[in-house]
Amino acid sequence: MWGIGVAVYFVAVIFRTSLGVAGLDAADRFHVGASALSVFSILQLLVYAGMQIPVGLLVDRLGTKRVLGIGAVLFTAGQLGFALAPSYGTALAARALLGCGDAMTFISVLRLGTRWFPARRGPLVAQLAGLAGMAGNLVSTLVLSRMLHGVGWTAAFAGSALAGVVVLVLLVLFLRDHPEGGEPAPVPRRGGPSVRAQIGDAWREPGTRLGLWTHFTTQFPATVFLLLWGMPFLVEAQGLSRAAAGELLTLIVLSHMAFGLVYGQVVARRHGARLPLVLGTVGVTAVLWAVMLAWPGGRAPAGLLVALCVVLGACGPASMIGFDFARPANPPERQGTASGITNMGGFIASMVTLFAVGVLLDATGDDYRVAFSSVFVLQALGVTRILRLRRGAARRERERLVAARAEAAAAAV
Question: In sequence order, what are the residues at sequence separation of 6 or more whose Cβ sits closer than 8 angstroms to the Cβ of residue 102?
């Protein structure tokens, strides 16, 4: 059952990241510049981020199967619409539809895992779901890019949309929300806090805000590189072939999968390693990014590009540490809300950077040095907020731990 849900998420990530290997082709097809091209990804991420908290509520009320089914219909229609779009406006609408469907998948898969596996396996199940998503990114980089330049735009995107139909059929025929006899208690419709109060209570916790800024600061450089600007930068500014650029993007995905396993084990064994891992990842990323942009002649050596792509692979796993700050700061009834707030951080940073890079490229005549320097502004902002929130979050986390231990001791007595 969980495998069916993961398959839906896998296909959603293929569709989500498909523009990353088609940016140059999209600019030619729709006759747009860099800033207009960035709007594709910005709109898609805007819809995705805005849907995080509503999707959590939908899963609670409608069940996993229905929400995943709606998501599969929407992202498949979006991918097919993007294949057939005759104009820039129609293509934008298709990407927005895709983003809406994509937003319904990951939270649903996490909930499916809690229903079909014991609680002690929760971290492993969530980690494997994330790895499946990165495998989808790998497929879009390796397979879809070759299809695009082999059979053309329409055939490649329309053909890939068939994968959405396949997983939708599997979902409808076989998926069940929970094992027989494992139906969860119904969600009370009255008597609980309002949605506004629930969000406000979660936001007032320093750990929630620290989680958001951690996600904000760590995730976006790799997302921006993979989702849109990596391929044009490597081809146009660094003079690489499309095949070589695709291999570097693939390296980011593989590095992400490896670092995900390492960071997960380190944080599980040493909770105090969370902040050093976050700040270390941001620092190394910033240094390599700066060296690449400042390299004499503008074209960095292959070794430096490889090192940068390896480090960019650590950005995603570092962003997941944000959830480890938000989780202990909130009681069980606010976990979904806190996770939704945290998850929006990286996508907000990605949207801002995607737009800034596009505008700066148009304003400077495709000067990637200037455009890519916008990354440092958001990193500096994020690190400042992390440093300001870390003590308050640590204090509240200790208070909650002491209270939980006292409650457990009283219950034992």
Answer: 12, 13, 15, 16, 44, 48, 71, 75
Place of tokens 């986390």: 397
Residue pair 16/335 in contact (Cβ under 8 Å)? The answer is no
- Residues 312-332 have a mean pLDDT of 85
CATH of span 1-177: 1.20.1250.20
Rounded Cα gap, residues 378 and 386, in angstroms: 12
List the domain boundaries for the chain.
1-177, 199-413
Q: What is the mean pLDDT of the chain?
A: 85
| Residue closest to 254 by CA, chosen among 377, 134, 101, 96 | 134
pLDDT over 90 at 207, yes or no: yes
Are the beta carbons of 138 and 253 closer than 8 angstroms?
yes
Lowest model confidence (mean pLDDT) among 66-75, 118-127, 244-253: 118-127
Using the predicted structure, report yes or no on whether residue 16 has a pLDDT greater than 80. yes
Could you give the 3-state DSSP secondary structure of residue 399? helix
Q: Tell me if 1-177 shares its fold with 199-413.
A: yes
Tell which wins on pLDDT, 182 or 383: 383
Q: What is the pLDDT of residues 349-402, one digit of tens each?
A: 998 998 899 899 989 988 999 999 999 999 999 999 999 999 999 888 888 777
DSSP code string of 92-144: HHHHHHHHHHHHTTHHHHHHHHHHHS-GGGHHHHHHHHHHHHHHHHHHIIIII
Distances (CA, A) of 76 to 15, 80, 210, 316, 387: 8, 6, 35, 25, 42
Q: Please, is 178 exposed, middle or buried when counting C-beta atoms within 10 Å of its C-beta (0-12, 13-18, 19+)?
A: middle
Interval 235-239 mean pLDDT: 92
Rounded Cα distance, 114 and 308, in Å:
36
Do the beta carbons of residue 37 and residue 24 sit within 8 Å? Answer: no
Report in angstroms the alpha-carbon separations of 304 from 221, 234, 357, 368.
16, 12, 21, 17
**CATH no., domain 199-413:** 1.20.1250.20
**DSSP line for 378-397:** HHHHHHHHHHHHHHHHHHHH
* Dihedral class, residue 298 (left if φ above 0, else alpha if ψ from -120 to 50, else beta): left
